[in-house]
Amino acid sequence: MGELDRTVDKKTKQKFLLEKHKDIARIDQESKRTHGWYVRVRYQGKTHAKFFSDKKGGGRYSSLLSAITWRDKTEKILGKIRTNKHIVTVSSTGTGVVGVRHNKKMNRYEVSWVTDYGKQGKTSVSIKKHGKQKAFLLACEIRKLKENARLGLT
Questions:
Q1: Which CATH architecture has domain 3-78?
Q2: 1, 41, 51, 87: which could form a disulfide with 5 (CB 3.0–4.6 Å)?
Q3: CA-CA distance, 117 to 131, in Å (whole number)?
Q4: Residues 24-28: contacts with CB under 8 Å, at least 24 apart
Q5: Where in the chain is the domain with CATH 3.30.160?
Q6: What is the largest CA-CA distance in the chain?
Q7: Which is higher by pLDDT, 81 or 87?
């Protein structure tokens, strides 16, 4: 057992082990005698991954702590925002901006985001009222403000 395993009570460790940890997956593959935590940090189209073995790490709890530490440190080095909330980074809307789509039929830009409560928020910006370029910039600004508020970056 690792040093950290001895300093925390069994109930606290068990609860922590059962919690979900973003970008960290548990691997228990008996056939290959592989037990540990697999961390995968994705940022700007690149994936950084590392496996933390229970045996090498001093136990299941200690290896999880090492995995979390590595994930957080790697995200900091890469400049990725540390959050447990899901962040979408690839746009499929045609505008190239996540959460902003051009509705040609209604002649507007539609903005969507996830609220603090996990619900979808929506609004739109009129192209007729603002012009196409200004409406797009306003829609992008709204999206940025709403996402930053959700992530606590305001």
A1: 2-Layer Sandwich (3.30)
A2: 1
A3: 33
A4: 24/64, 24/67, 24/68, 24/71, 27/51
A5: 3-78
A6: 67
A7: 81
Pair 100, 88: CB distance under 8 Å: no
Confidence (pTM): 0.53
124, 94 contact by CB (below 8 A): no
- pLDDT tens by residue, 104-134: 999 999 999 888 777 889 999 999 999 999 9
In three state form, how does the secondary structure of the chain look? Answer: CCHHHHHCCHHHHHHHHHCCCCCEEEEEEHHHCEEEEEEEEEECCEEEEEEEEHHHHCCHHHHHHHHHHHHHHHHHHHCCCCCCCCCCCCCCCCCCCCCEEEECCCCEEEEEEECCCCCEEEEEEEHHHHCHHHHHHHHHHHHHHHHHHHHCCC
In angstroms, the CA 50 to CA 40 distance is 7
